[in-house]
């Protein structure tokens, strides 16, 4: 994972881990010498992060979600699989259960404090790299961003192409970007070169099997 992020993260870089969960990305960036803002709303994950990074001076934990506007929102928590806890609506939950081998239940709804990327930038600065992995709430996160970032990624699910394209619409409002993508936890970019949006969407649509992955966005000068 550290090797995969080397092109994006240099020593003294500032990185935002939006949806930090258990902090594997944060840990990789710290090993590269970055300063990390780990943003995670789930109380159980926040407790884990505080314990895991208790001696880490280059990491700040923000126990909040990120959205279009600051405030509070209900979050559906899955005890069995916290990685699919979500602020998104029922379409995401139905799609996950339709395409997964294991049925997921969401056991509890918690009222979660929400901030925005703009607020985080105002407090900590513009990140050199930002990862957004928030279980079908990526569009709302991007709507809360009004300045272009040098590079960032957001999670997508190929069974929800409309949501992916909504994200790409928001990205293109920010500036002129080229794109790449990865499947699941492969830590491998699928395109040999950075491509235009049209090529990205066409290539992702060519896969008929359901999968999730990450789209990487690089600002063109």
> Quick one: CATH class?
Alpha Beta
Beta strand %? 25-35%
Provide the CATH superfamily: Vaccinia Virus protein VP39
Rounded mean pLDDT is 92
| Backbone structural class | alpha/beta
CATH architecture: 3-Layer(aba) Sandwich
Tell me the number of strands. Answer: 10
Summed up, the domain count is 1
Structure, described:
The chain is an alpha/beta fold. It has one domain (2-219): Rossmann fold. Helix content is 31%, strand content 26%. It has eight helices and ten strands. It has helices spanning 2-5, 24-31, 43-52, 90-99, 117-124, 138-143, 161-174, 197-205, and strands at 14-18, 35-39, 59-62, 65-66, 71-77, 108-115, 129-132, 151-157, 177-183, 212-219. The strands form two sheets. Strands 3-2-1-7-8-10-9 form a seven-stranded mixed sheet, with helices on both faces. Strand 2, helix 3 and strand 3 (59-62) form a beta-alpha-beta unit. The protein is globular, with a radius of gyration of 16 Å. It starts with a helix and ends with a strand. The model has no long low-confidence stretch (mean pLDDT 92).
